[in-house]
Design a protein that fits this description.
The chain is mainly beta. Helices cover 4% and strands 50% of the residues.
Length: 471
């Protein structure tokens, strides 16, 4: 292995070690080993894989630190792979010289406001493990085109930008597994202007990626963010038709502190010029909570949302806009009971959605009938909810086998909806004194609605212009 001190690196946190590290990568034996120390660099070290051959960087069991004192990424890996992930699309020289670049067991820390950790372009099978990326702008940034990327067992912590950032990239096969991604100002995992396929976000702790961790420094507290943020509204020259499909978000803890425009999972579909809606996906088995909106989906199609515990959405637990072919099954919408008296009035809000199934949901309102947990800095009072579940201008919705407990004032409200069926549901107010005005309210106009085999302990209200059978 090529030891940097043999190439003149000081590792004292004061001297500029940029040239020494660059020399090792260009002239060494392919493994840059950083012994314990602090290696200060002042410009990006570019790893041209085709020119310098297969490369690995190791920080000796986490004892080494790179301090990036200039703008841009500390390390930029550049490859030439332009094919897909299929074996026959790889050129022989890519396998020989570029496959599986690695960085492991290393801390990268920023000392410049525009310092990033690692950037990838044109790579194949890049693998990152055991990294600590902190006090940077972005932790890991992927641009242009990459294939088969693994990020595992890393701490991506307290950065002013984004923890893992797909920025105008064409990327297939991307696994983000078993990481701690927290306290990043603009999001934990964020994808913009990109085409992404086969994405797995599994078993991570993704928390507090919002404004509250950065109250100073000129940041706009109202800038939208999220723990996980997918946005397909814009295009770049490299990705003319952005879309994100074939993804799973599974078995993560995704929590936050209430922040203006904050969200735990925010997925925004393409504008009318896009080709494919975000979808063919599953959001399963996560703990999601304590943000202005916990799950916000816009213009999505074909996402299965199942087996999650979703709690404490100050404005909405779930907000879906313009979505279709969606299922919400077996989710629990409740509270965090660890602080007595701090309650959030749960709410699911669907507008302009069609062909969706909501089944086996457990939804509980605030026992006191209102939200009692407020944070003044977070942008005012919480939204006043019309019902635990609000449907607005929706079509062909199945609501089956759900339990609504302690709503105030209404369990389910449907406005200007058609072909909505409410079957096999229960609604109970378990307070000593009931605060529920109505179990189900039908407002506006609509046809083809049906209620059947429900157990309701409050009345049903219907305006004359809305057709509902079975009342």
């Amino acid at each position: 292995m090529s030891r940097v001190r043999d190439f003149g690196a000081a590792g004292d946190g004061v001297a500029d070690d940029t040239e020494a590290l660059t020399h090792v990568l260009r002239s060494g034996d392919g493994v840059l080993e950083l012994s314990r120390g602090v290696y200060r660099i002042t410009r990006t070290i570019e790893v041209d894989l085709q020119r310098i051959n297969r490369t690995g960087i190791d920080g000796r069991h986490g004892t080494a630190t790179i301090v990036m004192a200039g703008p841009g990424p500390a390390f930029r890996f550049v490859g030439t792979h332009g094919g897909s992930a299929a074996p026959d699309s790889f050129k022989p020289e890519v396998w020989e010289r570029q496959r599986m670049p690695q960085i492991s067991n290393l801390e990268i820390r920023g000392e410049h406001p525009e310092a990033d950790g690692i950037e990838l372009t044109g790579t194949m099978e890049a693998t990152f493990s055991g990294l600590l990326l902190r006090e940077l702008r972005h932790g890991i940034r992927l641009v242009k085109r990459n294939r088969n990327v693994l990020i595992t067992g890393c701490h991506i912590f307290h950065n002013t930008g984004i923890g893992v950032f797909c920025d105008g990239v064409n990327l297939h096969q991307f696994n983000i597994t078993g990481n701690h991604i927290s306290y990043n100002r603009l999001g934990g995992i964020r994808i913009e202007r990109s085409e992404v396929r086969n994405l797995q976000i599994t078993g991570n702790d993704i928390e507090y990626n919002n404004f509250k961790s950065f109250p100073t420094g000129g940041f706009d507290p109202a800038e939208p963010t999220a723990e996980i943020y997918f946005d397909c509204r814009e295009k770049t020259g490299d990705v003319p038709s952005p879309s994100i499909r074939e993804f799973t978000i599974a078995s993560n803890t995704i929590q936050a502190t209430h922040s203006p425009n904050g969200c735990n999972i925010r997925i925004i579909g393409p504008d009318p010029t896009g080709v494919l809606q975000i979808g063919m996906a599953a959001i399963t088995g996560n703990l999601i909570g304590n943000q202005a909106t916990n799950l916000h989906l816009t213009a999505c199609r074909g996402i299965a949302i199942s087996g999650n515990h979703i709690y404490g959405g100050y404005r909405h637990n779930v907000r879906m806009q313009g979505c279709d072919d969606m299922t919400l099954t077996g989710n629990l919408f409740g509270h965090n009971y660890w602080v007595p008296g701090r309650q959030i009035d749960n709410n699911l809000y669907l507008e302009d959605c069609s062909d969706c199934v909501l089944q086996g949901l457990q939804v509980r309102g605030a026992p006191e009938g209102k939200t009692t947990w407020t944070e003044d800095w977070a942008g005012g009072s919480p939204r006043v909810h019309e019902a635990l579940l609000e449907l607005n201008r929706c079509r062909r919705i199945v609501l089956d086998g759900c339990q609504f407990r302690d709503p105030c004032p209404v369990g389910v409200q449907a406005v200007d909806c058609s072909d909505v069926t409410v079957t096999g549901c229960q609604l109970h107010d378990t307070r000593e004194q009931s605060l529920t005005r109505a179990a189900v309210v039908w407002k506006g106009t609509g046809t083809g609605n049906l209620m059947a085999a429900n157990r309701l302990t409050a009345p049903v209200e219907r305006e004359p212009g809305c057709q509902v059978d079975g009342i």
